[in-house]
Design a protein that fits this description.
The complex is a heterotrimer of chains A (289), B (385) and C (297).
Chain A lengths: L1 H26 L7 H18 L4 H24 L5 H19 L1 H4 L17 H24 L1 H11 L1 H6 L4 H27 L9 H14 L4 H18 L6 H22 L16
Chain B lengths: L12 H24 L6 E7 L6 H20 L8 E7 L4 H15 L3 E4 L2 H14 L2 E4 L14 E3 L4 H15 L4 E7 L2 H16 L3 E8 L7 H10 L3 E5 L2 H13 L5 E4 L6 H7 L7 E4 L9 H14 L5 H18 L5 H10 L3 E3 L2 E3 L12 E6 L2 E5 L1
Parallel strand pairs in B: 1-2, 1-3, 3-4, 4-5, 6-7, 6-8, 8-9, 9-10
Antiparallel strand pairs in B: 10-13, 11-12, 13-14
Helix pairs in contact in B: 2-11, 3-4, 5-6, 8-9, 11-12
Chain C lengths: L1 H33 L6 H18 L4 H29 L4 H23 L10 H4 L2 E3 L2 E3 L1 H23 L1 H11 L1 H6 L4 H27 L6 H15 L4 H18 L8 H15 L15
Antiparallel strand pairs in C: 1-2
Helix pairs in contact in C: 1-6, 1-9, 1-10, 1-11, 2-3, 2-4, 2-9, 2-10, 3-4, 3-9, 6-7, 6-9, 7-9, 10-11, 10-12, 11-12
Classes of the chains: A mainly alpha (289), B alpha/beta (385), C mainly alpha (297).
């Protein structure tokens, strides 16, 4: 059963990452391929403070969020003020820069060696308890995302998504909205990253690559862009299926590419035939325009 | 985002139920299988190997070596009729993936022993194995820190701290090198081994004049080699995998580098020589004694059988995998069942007749095997005195 | 000795840069008229190398035939990706963002199929040794393959420039790039031109891939880095400017290689992105691009 709770924690953590990404992708239609980098910032901040400075796990979270918020703010301000696809390219480049920093700044991050023996908070040491902790954070994250979605602020985000020019023409500062939601999303992602570090107990740069960012995007699309519960379902489906595959005698050389093909194909098929995902966004009357 | 988005309320209950149902079903299957995986008659031998990823050749060495070992055990009637089954997980030479794999092996398959390779992976898995009191067998990682992990960690391959003594001596005395340039792979293996070498080389009066890094699985060595060429060292000490060395040697020749090359053990491998071609000429290394062509009778027999079967010569790791499984079987035959009993058996063996050579472990579970020096000459691998 | 190293690095940079210029042009050929951020271009790049490998090493075709085969197959594959994935998606009413997302998915799928078909072992293509053995000039070396690379890249770039300026198809591509709506109105068959741009862009990226494969061998993961370079060069040169993209590609190659003169070479790809970051911050329109609109203005 231990393994079962491990998978549950993994689902909850990817749920947090996906829900937070949904804020920018689903609510606002900003396509970021740097989400794994912010997850990485959270993971590294927590891991370094836990192993090097003897911080309490919960005390690392504000630091992780602050760093992620600051860095994402810089990225957002420099790219989101530009029209067109620049923010995609900006986040793309940023993802690679940050990966290189994790990999090559050996003095700080341990480079390719990663960071080992990352402790879990004492009261949540077992897999069962850690699963409860991550589910708790997921619940908080969902609550925040829903509140954001239902608030007037969230309605402006959706208006920007539907028609940027119109939103700007009614006097909304589009850039400010975009930057703020991007920063919020990155801060939540850093919490996911910190929890991830605790679960796996080991992190290295190879986790936080552009492939991971694309994987997270796939979870958002398959789950349902704009629906935060959909994000949790998307994460659950795509985390559990490959874990379940471990129990069947599929040769590993074949299993891992097949897993990738599966989620790639699912993403294409969903975009084409069910673009609203497993759980479509619920739009209450009067919400848009 | 979508232009034709409707604003009316959408409630898609069937889809929701469908999705949740799917997740639930999978979760239940997972949980059910977890419970069912116990009551089995056979012994299990766990392995976390890079079947895919940057160094898949090690996955292949394992699969082939273990296949031959299991065939031999079957011929011998297994362990009083009880089979040994290999449970292989792909770790991609990625510590994170490997950690998930070993947790599955320990918690679900309940294996008493896990074999793995790769310094980054061994160092990541070691503490987990130690904590769960499961034996970890290393068949290819050379990082000297493997020694310090704990008393459940065994290494069938000698670590760099021992082998580099011979390597550094060969650099200073054999190759008469005063200066060296380092070129190493950017991971635990590359850094661990090259810094051990540097310490010993500089301790015997040599000087490291340049130090370049390459990525795992790198194919383009133009840049680091250009810098090394202009550093003009007597030798280049290379630490990396067979494929990387093959590409590097080739490039070095093409850009007209004059330095001679020295490498850690395990690189005299069909893969290196195929990739490098005649650019491998003069490459030296303090190497493992295992030699499927010119080695002892037992090594040659293994090499011949392997080659007939798989049409290539076995790498070192294949032979060590064979030995590791045979050692495990021997421990089971003596009645050892728990990891503690198996550990005690392993510590007690003296000159176990392995295909990689006789195996004896020191107190810390590291093999006492001594290296030999080899060089590529006229396209052949020659043993130096 | 140090200034010789610098000179050698400059030579290496020009060789790398001429391939980067090809990459930049290949991406821009597709992006500029179709506005498709074709991430799977990275896969086309890798596949064309493996096609070459399959033809030359697997089936033993002569090298020039294999190269031509690789380039043409890659072009066809680019068209196929557009027809099977992007175009149906566009027709179903999806926006730019869905197409981009699908291109990520295509990338992931193709990458994994590649692993199943060719495995992850590194591959080299046997090339006549004379092409690869360096010609020494004092302490400097250049291989004939390097010279061939630069010459081919130059010739191809010149041909593209002529094609875009003087042929009907080239003019049509530029017309769509400037104003897609207008192009339809004056009767340009946009779907046909779209297929042509995918073919041309994919064939161009294949040329870059072929030379990389001949020189350095193949690994399944080399695509992303190539795509990054292409995108950065396109931005730095200015979106919509073909000469700008080519020049920026060349420049990137040189800057990357000179940059590592003093800093450790593992930071090489970070240099590329620092250049990108600087441009995004201070000159988002690149050298030759049209002015980029900002929200705050």
């Amino acid at each position: 059963m231990n393994y079962f709770f491990y998978v549950i924690s993994l689902v909850a953590i990817y749920g947090i990452l996906t829900v937070s990404l949904n804020l920018v992708v689903g609510y606002t239609a900003i396509l970021s391929v740097a989400h794994a980098a912010f997850m990485g910032i959270g993971a590294y901040a927590a891991a370094l403070l836990l192993t090097g400075w003897g911080f309490n796990f919960f005390a690392t979270l504000p630091v992780a969020m602050a760093v992620a918020g600051l860095v994402s703010g810089i990225l957002a301000v420099s790219t989101l003020r530009l029209k067109g696809d620049y923010y995609i390219i900006g986040s793309f480049g940023f993802q690679v820069i940050l990966y290189n920093v994790f990999l090559n700044w050996i003095g700080l991050t341990g480079g390719p060696f990663g960071i080992r023996n990352i402790p879990r908070p004492q009261a949540f040491g077992s897999n069962l308890r850690y699963a409860i902790l991550t589910l708790g954070f997921l619940a908080v994250c969902l609550w925040v995302a829903r509140r954001v979605g239902e608030s007037p602020y969230g309605k402006v985000l959706r208006a920007i998504r539907e028609d940027e020019a119109a939103a700007a023409s009614i006097g909304k500062n589009v850039t400010r909205y975009k930057v703020s939601v991007f920063v919020l999303s990155s801060m939540l992602a850093s919490v996911g990253g910190a929890l991830y570090a605790g679960l796996i107990s080991y992190i290295d740069p190879f986790t936080f690559t552009i492939h991971e960012s694309i994987f997270l995007l796939a979870l958002v699309i398959i789950g349902g862009s704009g629906n935060v519960y959909g994000s949790v379902v998307g994460a659950a489906v795509l985390i559990v299926i490959p874990e379940a595959l471990r129990f069947f005698d599929v040769p590993t050389t074949v299993a891992s590419p097949i897993r990738e093909i599966l989620y790639g194909l699912l993403m294409i098929l969903f975009l084409r035939f069910r673009p609203k995902g497993l759980l479509p966004e619920r739009i209450t009357p009067g919400m848009v325009r | 985002m979508r232009t034709n988005r409707t604003s009316k309320q959408i409630r898609s209950v069937p889809a929701t139920l469908w999705a949740l149902g799917l997740v639930l079903a999978l979760a239940l299957t997972l949980g059910g299988l977890t419970g069912a995986a116990h009551a089995q008659e056979e012994f299990k031998y766990g392995a976390v190997m890079p079947v895919t990823g940057p160094i898949p050749q090690y996955g292949e060495y394992f699969i082939r070596g273990s296949q031959l070992a299991l065939e031999d055990l079957e011929k011998g009637g297994w362990i009083d009729g009880r089979k040994i089954r290999v449970v292989l997980e792909d770790g991609k030479n990625d510590p994170k993936v490997s950690l998930a794999a070993i947790n599955k092996l320990i918690n679900i398959d309940k294996v008493p022993i896990v074999e793995t390779v790769g310094s980054s992976v061994v160092l990541a898995l070691g503490p987990v194995a130690q904590e769960n009191r499961v034996i970890l067998v290393n068949t290819a990682a050379q990082n000297p820190n493997v020694r310090k992990i704990g008393n459940f960690i065994f290494s069938l391959v000698p670590l760099a701290d021992g082998v580099m003594q011979t390597t550094a001596r060969q650099a200073v005395e054999g190759m008469k090198a005063k200066t060296a340039g380092l070129l190493f792979v950017n991971n635990e293996y590359g850094r661990g081994v090259s810094s051990t070498f540097q310490k010993l080389f500089e301790g015997s009066g040599g000087k490291v004049v340049a130090s370049e890094i390459h990525a795992q699985g790198e194919t383009d060595f133009t840049t680091p080699l250009t810098k090394l060429k202009f550093a003009n060292a007597d030798i280049v000490f290379f630490v990396g995998h067979e494929n990387e060395l093959g590409y590097a040697l080739k490039k070095a020749k093409q850009i007209g580098m004059k330095s001679r090359w020295l490498a850690p053990p395990g690189v005299f491998n069909p893969l290196t020589l195929t990739l490098a071609g005649d650019a491998a000429e003069g490459l030296q290394a303090a190497d493992y004694p295992f030699d499927p062509v010119y080695g002892t009778e037992r090594m040659r027999a293994f090499g011949k059988r392997y080659q007939e079967r798989f049409r290539v010569l076995p790498g070192n790791a294949a032979a060590r995998t064979y030995d590791a499984i045979m050692l495990y079987a021997a421990a089971l035959k003596t009645g050892g069942r728990t990891p503690e009993q198996i550990r005690d058996y392993l510590l007690s063996v003296k000159n176990f007749d392995g295909v990689s050579g006789p195996v004896t472990f020191d107190k810390e579970g590291i093999t006492l095997e001594q290296p030999v020096v080899r060089v590529v000459q006229g396209g052949k691998i020659i043993l130096m005195k | 000795m140090a200034h010789w190293l610098l000179l050698q690095l400059l030579i290496n940079g020009i060789v790398a840069g001429s391939l980067y210029a090809l990459l930049a042009i290949s991406f821009a050929t597709i992006y500029a008229p179709t506005k498709t951020f074709h991430f799977a271009h990275a896969s086309i790049y890798v596949y064309s190398g493996y096609f070459l490998y399959q033809f030359a090493m697997g089936w033993g075709w002569p090298l020039p035939v294999s190269i031509l085969g690789g380039v043409v197959t890659a072009g066809a594959m680019g068209v196929l990706v557009d027809r099977v994935v992007y175009t149906p998606l566009r027709r179903s009413g999806a926006g730019v963002m869905e197409v981009l997302l699908s291109s990520f998915a295509v990338f992931v799928v193709l990458q994994s199929v590649l692993l199943l078909v060719w495995k992850s072992d590194p591959r080299t293509i046997r090339v006549p040794e004379v092409l690869k053995n360096g010609i020494p000039f004092g302490v400097l070396t250049v291989t004939p393959l390097d010279l061939l690379t630069v010459a081919t890249a130059g010739a191809v770039l010149a041909a593209v420039a002529v094609f875009m300026r003087y042929t009907r198809l080239g003019k049509a591509i530029r017309a769509i790039e400037n104003d897609a709506g207008m192009a339809v109105m004056v009767g340009i068959p946009t779907e046909g031109v779209r297929m042509a741009t995918f073919f041309l862009g994919s064939a161009l990226v294949a040329v870059a891939a072929v030379f990389t494969a001949l020189d350095k061998g193949l690994e399944p993961t080399i695509g992303v880095q190539a795509l990054l370079v292409a995108v950065v060069a396109m931005i730095v040169g200015g979106v919509g400017s073909f000469p700008g993209a080519a020049l920026a590609g060349l420049l990137l190659g040189v800057v990357e290689n000179l940059g590592i003169w003093k800093i450790p070479s593992e930071w090489k790809s970070t240099i590329t992105f620092s250049v990108l970051a600087l441009f995004l911050l201070f000159r988002p329109s690149g050298f030759f691009g049209q002015r980029v609109a900002r929200y705050s203005e």
